[in-house]
Design goal:
Layout: H1 3-29, H2 40-77, H3 92-112, H4 117-137
Helix pairs in contact: 1-2, 2-3
InterPro entries: Claudin, PMP22/EMP/MP20/Claudin
Organism: Machaerirhynchus nigripectus
Membrane topology: Multi-pass membrane protein
């Protein structure tokens, strides 16, 4: 196979692996699961890590599909002896790839928006309130 096809294949395999690990990490980071830490701040950070993996997976997919589309466009407009009706054109798989990349990046960015900073502030305030109330009763 030519170099650009091997590169696209490698990027898609990397994208699949990143997506698989993103699913596993995101499931562990969900607030409704009992897997892993019980601390909500740690759970949120794990969910953000899953979101980052999804964004990276979407970027790898986008790069692979766009690289292949660039090569198809280059081959189509290059002067050759192949008749125009026998040359490659954009197929539905390219559009599905672009759609999948954009949905993966959108989902990853939504997971990244679960920032733990607000929860941490509320938790610290809650801890201080308990410790000061405990001192008054002692």
């Amino acid at each position: 196979l030519s170099v650009h096809i091997q590169t696209c294949r490698a990027l898609m395999v990397i994208s699949l692996l990143l997506g698989f690990f993103g699913i596993i990490v995101s499931v562990v980071g969900m607030k409704c699961t009992k897997v892993g830490e019980e601390d909500p701040v740690t759970k949120s950070r794990i969910a953000v890590a899953g979101g980052v993996l999804f964004v990276l997976s979407g970027l790898c997919t986008l790069a692979a599909v766009s690289l292949y589309a660039t090569q198809v466009t280059y081959e189509f407009f290059r002067e050759s002896t192949i008749p125009i009706n026998a040359r490659y054109e954009f197929g539905s798989a390219l559009f599905v790839g672009w759609g999948a990349a954009s949905l993966s990046m959108l989902g990853g960015s939504l997971l990244c928006c679960s920032c733990p900073a607000k929860e941490r502030r509320g938790q610290q305030y809650h801890r201080q309130a308990q410790s000061s109330a405990a001192r008054e009763y002692v």
